[in-house]
């Protein structure tokens, strides 16, 4: 378990992270979301002791700097480009492993696991962005850590690579590890994450399971199509439902109860062509939750 308590970071008069408190539990994938400039990367740097701030981050009651062998406890990828371009992938991992007492066999295992074993002798300067990303993930995993912290791990990966990282992180969580992943790809987080930590302008917006976050920040509706939409709309409104027209023959009813709408149609004597529940997405919930906490916002074309 990772415990974050009252984490705060100032740059001059600007608060980059403000009084952030949450818990990241083991055995699940926790997605870390926020608009640009929300403080996600700063938070991750604070977690790893790369920046100084106020508050504390504990890995099972220990700060990162107090861990006896951090590489074997916490695996992190914050910047895939932070590798000497003249070194080979093998040399890069071997240097990390040597400092942590990790075997050569483990280095080769991890290179194979991320799909770089055949190019292990090539200089990193000739790697594509996706290959550098795989090497960064290998560096995070070489110590077989209990905690995995990744900043934008799918950056530069092709579709096969995205599917691979999704499966990898799920397997790590299923093994009981604590997995904390930031991303701007909401569709990926929706498929991958069990829990969410959402911040905006450095402040905590939510820390809860994905399904609870979506339920808290969106509404579920029933969509009904009928050859007599106007008569059914008036009947539903008289029955206390909030209704909005959609298309020529469709109504959107502000309720999650499809059975209630179906029953109302029978009572009103209205034929139904289609009836289904429309559930909102993580994207809908995210934009609703962060609407007042977005620093950089583009204008509509």
From TrEMBL:
Keyword Lyase assigned: no
Which Pfam families does this one have?
Answer: ABC_tran
| Stored SMART domains | AAA (SM00382)
Origin, by domain of life? Bacteria
Output the Gene Ontology terms for molecular function. ATP binding; ATP hydrolysis activity
* Record's keyword annotation contains Transport: yes
Query: InterPro entries, from UniProt?
Result: AAA+_ATPase (IPR003593), ABC_transporter-like_ATP-bd (IPR003439), ABC_transporter-like_CS (IPR017871), P-loop_NTPase (IPR027417)
ABC transporter domain location: 2-226
* Record keywords: ATP-binding, Nucleotide-binding, Transport
Q: Family assignment? A: Belongs to the ABC transporter superfamily.
PANTHER family linked to this entry: ABC TRANSPORTER, ATP-BINDING PROTEIN
Annotated protein name in UniProt: ATP-binding cassette domain-containing protein
């Amino acid at each position: 378990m990772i415990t974050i308590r009252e984490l705060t970071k100032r740059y001059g008069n600007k608060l980059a992270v403000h009084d952030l408190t949450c818990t990241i539990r083991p055995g699940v994938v926790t997605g870390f979301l926020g608009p640009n400039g929300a403080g996600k990367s700063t938070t991750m740097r604070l977690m790893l002791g790369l920046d100084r701030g106020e508050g504390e981050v504990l890995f099972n009651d220990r700060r990162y700097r107090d861990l006896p062998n951090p590489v074997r406890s916490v695996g992190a990828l914050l910047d895939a480009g932070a590798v000497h371009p003249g070194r080979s992938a093998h040399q890069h991992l071997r240097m990390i492993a040597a400092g942590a007492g990790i075997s050569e066999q483990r280095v080769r295992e991890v290179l194979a696991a991320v799909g770089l074993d055949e190019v292990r002798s090539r200089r990193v300067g000739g790697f594509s962005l996706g290959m550098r990303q795989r090497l960064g993930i290998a560096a995070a995993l070489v110590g077989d850590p209990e905690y995995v912290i990744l900043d934008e791990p799918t950056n530069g990966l092709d579709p096969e690579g995205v599917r691979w990282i999704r499966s990898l992180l799920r397997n790590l969580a299923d093994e009981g590890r604590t997995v904390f992943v930031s991303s701007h790809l909401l569709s990926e987080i929706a498929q991958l994450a069990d829990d969410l930590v959402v911040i905006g302008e450095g402040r905590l917006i939510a820390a809860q399971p994905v399904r609870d976050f979506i339920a808290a920040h969106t509404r579920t509706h029933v969509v009904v199509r009928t050859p007599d939409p106007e008569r059914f709309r008036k009947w539903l409104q008289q029955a206390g439902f909030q209704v909005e027209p959609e298309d020529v023959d469709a109504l959107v009813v502000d309720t999650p109860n499809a059975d209630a709408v179906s029953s109302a149609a029978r009572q009103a004597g209205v034929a139904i062509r289609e009836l289904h529940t429309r559930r909102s997405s993580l994207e809908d919930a995210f934009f609703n939750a962060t609407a007042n906490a977005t620093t950089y916002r583009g204008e509509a074309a």
